[in-house]
Design brief:
The protein is α/β, with parallel strands linked by helices and 927 residues long. The chain is built from 40 helices and 15 strands.
């Protein structure tokens, strides 16, 4: 789980940043994040949540409810993230377990500390980059949408002070790099906003002086002196007074150093005679951002190469090789060239570079023999002496570089066979290799896989290209551009270049152009750069390939675009492609090798958003509409058939309309496997519903989507997925109306009422159920009518309309007895008991609950037995009969542990037990 508080409070749900709607939930999470990894006592939480209000009598119970809801939002079913600390049977406090990388405030402070260390070791460029990356994480005021509490207020103040200190440090780093002109405007604004911060004023004086504005620098000092004297009656600190004197005397040492921005180089391994070998590196990108971990790995590899003489005396060692892989446009070449420039001083005998054209549209990959000819000539060999045989030329190359310190960059390699002949063999040499494929058989190589940039680094890259002020002015627009570009550096460079070429454009103009998914790849091209062209090279490698499995791979790439979920499992992909599992796996793994798919476990596969758009284009061009529809129908059938199987395993007695479907079924053996499958696939299932019921889809796909909604009801509702439940049922209602299918519409209206119930919107519950009842009665569907009447009576009770609830419930019970539906009678008696209890008729309520319990035991439904025992216990407790209440609650607790029950009700039962335990001064019964 990831959290953001440097702006509005947000959670990352695995696909997007989301907010918590209820203010109390946000307050609870905000306070826990203020004290991340520390226990916050329940008493402290009560003060934080209701400090300025009248604390309700049920406050402690409400905290437990908020904690439960928050755990659901965090996906923390086991309580391993939001941890309860107990004293005896009672919750004493809560601790939110947070890793540094998961929390933007902690990551920000980490980057600031790294920046300060960079300044301490005289590495201002690296320091500025770290500090700039940290500051780019800020989206607004900390905890912007969290109600103010003592903890939130204190943490907000602390973080804002940290931000000012980070700004100060970043400006110091920029000044050391000679960027005094670039920071002038920022310094003037900051000193106006914070007139008493003398460090900022000193940096403003220095920037003005270095910009040739000595008089303005002295005026800045006079202004500070006046403000301090008038407001505080003090003088500027001694270092500032000394700086004024140095400016007055035009001290030349205040000017920028002759080589600003150069981080102090690593010490040379040993003095060497001056030589001038080949220097073939292309220019480094001035917009290079992030990749700190990868650069550090490359530098660490080269450190081992520093003492050549010691290595040689010890018998030598293999050449150092760093092999960088990643999808097209992810920045492999940019990283290699940046690292090569940074390391160039360690390789005084030269740097050889070649683009092997393994990823260049319209060009064939270079032959190793041709490349060796270039290298040998660059090293001084006469062209007529270059061997024509590749093996001989490779041996000659290794002989020529033996004893030298040479760096070789092999960019855009097609594979290991192209790379091997081009590797130097001598100690003291090193090679950086980039390729879209992971060169796993390249002996002795250290492999670095590049992923897309995280959001903060992506925004920092955009800032480098477009300008810091422009990005800060439209921070949300910048973040949306990075999201639409999927963090892909090539796409971000193109987007940045377009904005830089149109300085009058607001960022929202480009956001609007990129939002249209069908035209996004058209927008992501500028000059000689195009995302589509980069992807086309890999696609065409399969389309024109000669291997027997190339066509399986390219067809899989295209058809995977018909699915709209975040990932796809191997069994579903096999259904989509209508291929055996082993052949499907081989095709998908080929795509993984080519960086067109991502996979961590050979079980689930994910495609980058921009690649998905490209795959969709290719599918429309190469696959017929009938083939695309048939593939999607096979995948949806697999989803529906497996979901129906899983829900039946979880709750075999639950009545719901199972739709006959022919399709592959993922093998699930028991309830545990069913739970895991549904939890894992839920994002894909929700996306499948939305995609299937789209008005543009043919009727068979729409019916599969509606059936999938019906199957998901009794997985989503018990787990309180209110928003998901509402979304899919609203989609299903509209789809059922288009299909002219009133029964499916009524089921969806009933499901929508369940979503409203979870959100405590009981008026909406009543409205949805009354619409469902009209349909059930028109159809003569007694079972559906009973179900909706039961739910309607419950909603009326929640609204305090107990008399109306009793009338509705008695109508339902009459239908149940008329049809001999004992299960419906069990549910109805429970609802009737709650309504009588609400009216203040406890004995009548107890009679209803006891009859419900008796019938539930006859049907064998342990879920209903647990409810009846719970309701009897609550009724006794409301009468002050705590021993009787505890006895029934103790009986209810073990019920919730058994398969087929709602585990969340175990927590409700525990909460109900607390009053009895406190009164009787005893502990609860069996857990």
């Amino acid at each position: 789980m990831r959290y953001r508080v440097l702006g509005a409070l947000e959670l990352w749900d695995g696909d997007r940043w989301t907010s918590l709607a209820p203010a109390k939930w946000r307050t609870l999470l905000g306070v826990l994040l203020c004290h991340a990894n520390r226990t916050v006592t329940t008493e402290r939480l009560l003060d934080e949540l209701w400090g300025g209000e009248q604390t309700p009598q049920s406050a402690a119970k409400l905290v437990q409810t908020y904690v439960s809801r928050l755990r659901q939002s965090l996906g923390d079913d086991s309580g391993q993230i939001l941890i309860t600390h107990k004293q005896g049977y009672k919750a004493h406090g809560y601790r939110l377990a947070v890793e540094t990388a998961e929390f933007d405030a902690h990551r920000f402070e980490q980057l600031v500390e790294e920046g300060r260390r960079g300044l301490d070791r005289e590495a201002p460029e690296a320091a500025a980059e770290r500090l700039r990356e940290g500051l780019a994480m800020w989206r607004g005021d900390p905890f912007a949408d969290v109600p103010t509490t003592p903890s939130v207020a204190a943490e907000t103040t602390r973080l804002e002070e940290c931000r000012l200190q980070a700004l100060d440090a970043r400006i110091e780093a920029d000044l050391r790099c000679g960027r005094h002109a670039a920071v002038l405007g920022e310094l003037e604004a900051l000193t106006a906003e914070h007139p008493f911060r003398e460090g900022l004023r000193g940096r403003l004086m220095l920037a003005l002086y270095r910009s040739g504005r000595q008089a303005d620098a002295l005026a800045a000092y006079r202004d500070l002196h006046r403000v301090l004297d008038e407001e505080l009656g003090v003088e500027p600190i001694p270092p500032l007074r000394q700086l004024q004197q140095r400016i007055l005397s035009a001290d030349a040492s205040l000017l920028a150093p002759p080589n600003p921005g150069a981080d102090r180089p690593a010490p040379a391994a040993a003095p060497r005679p001056a030589t001038r070998g080949p220097r073939q590196l292309p220019p480094a990108s001035p917009a290079f951002t992030g990749r700190h971990g990868e650069v550090a790995v490359i530098e660490a590899l080269m450190e081992a190469d520093a003492d050549v003489e010691a290595e040689t005396s010890a018998g030598g060692r293999p050449v150092v090789i760093a092999a960088i892989d990643g999808t097209g446009g992810v920045g492999k070449s940019t990283l290699a060239i940046h690292a090569a420039h940074h390391l160039a001083d360690r390789f005084p005998d030269g740097q050889l570079y070649v683009d092997l054209h393994g990823a260049t549209a319209g060009l064939s990959a270079l032959d190793p023999g041709e490349v060796l000819g270039r290298f040998l000539r660059a090293l001084g060999m006469d062209g007529s002496s270059v061997p024509s045989d590749t093996d001989e030329a490779s041996a000659q190359f290794r002989s020529l570089v033996a004893g030298r310190r040479l760096l070789v960059i092999l960019d855009n390699a097609t594979g290991v066979d192209q790379v091997r002949p081009l590797l130097p063999g001598g100690t003291g040499c090193a090679a950086l290799v980039t390729s879209r494929e992971m060169l796993t058989t390249l002996e002795g190589a250290t492999h670095l896989h590049l992923d897309v940039l995280p959001r903060d680094q992506a925004v920092a890259l955009l800032e480098r290209i477009v300008g810091a002020e422009r990005v800060r002015a439209e921070r949300e627009g910048a973040e949306e551009i990075t999201r639409l570009c999927g963090g892909l550096p090539l796409a971000l460079r193109i987007a940045g270049a377009r904005l830089a070429a149109r300085p009058a454009w607001p960022l929202r103009t480009l956001v609007a152009k990129l939002t249209d998914a069908r035209g996004r790849l058209d927008e992501l091209r500028f000059g000689d750069l195009a995302v589509r062209t980069s992807f086309q090279v890999s696609h065409d490698g399969f389309r024109l390939g000669r291997r027997s499995d190339d066509q399986d791979a390219v067809r899989a790439f295209r058809l995977l675009s018909t699915l709209h979920g975040p990932d796809v499992s191997l069994p579903v992909a096999a259904a989509l492609l209508d291929l055996p599992a082993d052949r499907t796996e081989n095709a998908l793994e080929r795509l993984v090798d080519a960086q067109l798919l991502e996979s961590n476990d050979s079980v689930r596969y994910h495609m980058h958003d921009l690649l998905l758009l490209f795959a969709s284009e290719q599918a429309e061009r190469e696959e017929s509409e009938a083939d695309r529809t048939a593939a999607l129908e096979r995948a949806l059938s697999c989803y529906l058939a497996t979901t129906q199987r899983a829900v039946t395993l979880i709750d075999p007695s639950r009545p719901w309309p199972r739709q006959p479907v022919e399709g592959r079924v993922v093998p699930l053996q028991d309830r545990g496997e069913a739970e895991v499958w549904l939890k894992t696939e839920l994002p894909n299932l929700l996306a499948a519903v939305a995609h299937a019921v789209d008005p543009a889809r043919p009727e068979p796909l729409v019916r599969l989507g509606v059936g999938l909604t019906q199957a998901l009801q009794w997985f989503l509702y018990p787990r309180a997925h209110a928003q998901d439940l509402q979304t899919v049922n609203e989609l299903a209602i509209r789809a059922a109306r288009r299909l002219g299918d009133p029964e499916s519409e009524a089921w969806a209206l009933d499901g929508l009422a369940g979503a409203y119930w979870l959100q405590h919107s009981y008026d909406d519950v009543r409205s949805a159920l009354r619409s469902a009842l009209e349909i059930w009665r028109a159809l003569g569907h007694r079972e559906g009518e009973q179900r909706s009447l039961c739910n309607l009576a419950d909603a009326l009770s929640e609204l305090g309309l107990y008399d109306e609830a009793i009338a509705v419930q008695e109508r339902q019970l009459a239908l149940a007895r008329e049809t001999g539906d004992l299960t419906a009678e069990v549910i109805g008696l429970g609802n009737l008991g709650r309504a009588h209890r609400g009216l203040g008729h406890p004995e009548t309520a107890l009679s209803c609950f006891r009859e419900s319990l008796e019938h539930a035991r006859r049907t064998g439904n342990i879920h209903h037995q647990g409810f009846a025992l719970y309701e009897i216990g609550i009724t006794y407790m409301e009468q002050g009969k705590f021993p009787e209440g505890r006895a029934h609650m103790d009986q209810a607790l073990p019920v919730w542990k058994r398969p087929g029950t709602h585990e969340s009700w175990r927590g409700h039962t525990w909460s109900g037990l607390f009053p009895a335990c406190m009164t009787l001064q005893i502990g609860p019964g069996p857990r």
